[in-house]
């Protein structure tokens, strides 16, 4: 049975499964330490949701909440479902859980970015009510 819930434990197995999913999303082998995952999971400004098939993590997504001048905003990062489980509505469940968590915490807006080639993800986001904005993203690597 597949469940979508907030992740609260940074076990070694969880870290390995999150790294596999991260590799599917980013196309590389990003490594996470137990300390890094534990910091994320214990941060009250982060909601980290996973889809599990039994004990195995098969999907994930994170919401990062931040106070802005005059409002509380947030952004969604790292939404991915294992390729073997796609097409079953798990991405929708993960994103909806993040939106619900944001609403419960008084967040007034949720933003996200998505690479142009992720057409299925774009369709999902639009079905959930996200609007595409024309913007230029600027980034500096430190």
Please write the string of helix (H) and strand (E) elements: EHHEEEHEH
CATH top-level class: Alpha Beta
Low-pLDDT runs: none
Beta-strand residue fraction: 25-35%
Mean pLDDT, as a whole number? 90
Evaluate the radius of gyration: 15 Å
Number of helices: 4
Counting copies of identical and different chains, the oligomeric state is: single chain
Determine the CATH superfamily. Answer: Gcn5-related N-acetyltransferase (GNAT)
Q: What is the CATH topology?
A: Aminopeptidase
Major β-sheet profile: 5 strands, mixed
Number of domains: 1
N- and C-termini, Cα separation = 42 Å
Shape: globular
Number of DSSP E strands: 5
Strand order of the largest sheet: 1-2-3-4-5
- The amount of helix comes to 25-40%
* SS-derived structural category: alpha+beta
Q: Architecture, according to CATH? A: 3-Layer(aba) Sandwich
Could you list some keywords that capture this structure?
alpha+beta; Aminopeptidase
